[in-house]
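Quick check before the chapter quiz. The format below is the same one you will see on the exam, so make sure you can read both the input and the output lines.
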Amino acid sequence: MTTSATAVIGGVDTHKHTHYAAAIDDHGRFLGHQEFPATDRGYQALLDWLRGHGDLRAIGVESTGSFGATLTRALTKAGERVIEVNRPNRLARRMDGKSDRLDAEQIARAVLGRVSTAVPKAKSGPVEVIRTLRVTRASAVKARTQAFNTLWGVMIGAPSPLRDELVVLTKRTLVNRCLRLRPETDDLLSLTADDDRLLLAAVKTSLRDLARRWKSLDEEIKNLNRQIEALVRAAAPELVELHGVGVEIAGQFMVTAGDNADRIRNEAAFAKLCGVAPQPASSGRTTGRHRLSRSGDRAANSALYIVTIVRMRHHQPTRDYVERRTAEGLSKREIIRCLKRYIAREIYANLPRPQTGTATQTTATSAAT
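Here is the expected output.
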């Protein structure tokens, strides 16, 4: 039997339509399990059920960025401590098998044993709005590229008089010219199969429709760019002012950190999150050796690389640092690794933090020197 003094740890295995919860006490004893619908009413019922076992200390939630995102927001809003748990206990899975109940229990035990300690992203502020718009824009950019590639392929295979007219045009001029194409008839069934006009009418119709699609997606992307720029500049003005950090790069760093950037303990943790923290690779008599981290957010790592290359070309203090380190015998790759680590420190210092205020701007290159 449990009492209100019992310290309870919860674990939730999330799915599309339902969430499966399990509860253990602070000594690891299993208290119960139950399934709940993935709705607002179900989230409240899950929370009430966990609280009914005693003093709820923490709740481990799987997939806080996808199926568990809405549940995480609801639990955080209710004042509960939520821990992100993404990797199951593989040894326990091999020994005991897999089920929703076992997964939920292992999630709770990962929190109890401090195997998982990460605080999930809040996903409830301006950064989440920026992330959503960026995802939408990325999809539109991909579709726009696909539309133009299809248009180009159709144009290349068009009858000679039309192809010769269009093949010499630049990208945007080609799209605008295709928008003005007028087939002899829009009813292709009215033409016979051996009519020479049939192929030409079909090609013109395809080119016109593809150009309309490209134009529509282009306008959508421009509108999204304006919205994203306004949001990023309002949320992180100091970050955008850093040398080599534009709106796109700043937006990526904000998405990587999340609305609650204070969940990242220090600049070393942020560097590890971005994949620029060197990892020990010593063994036996080989000591002091490190290797490049391949983990972390690769999009943030790419953003750091872009900032590094821009500064190496146009930022005089960085150019001086590169010359000095080159004279010391370091290769260009090693210098870039060092600069990415220093720039990560500068980015972390300028991330927006609503709770503690915006940090004072620092200079990455001065840290290197």
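If your answer matched, good. The first strand starts at residue 7 and ends at 14.
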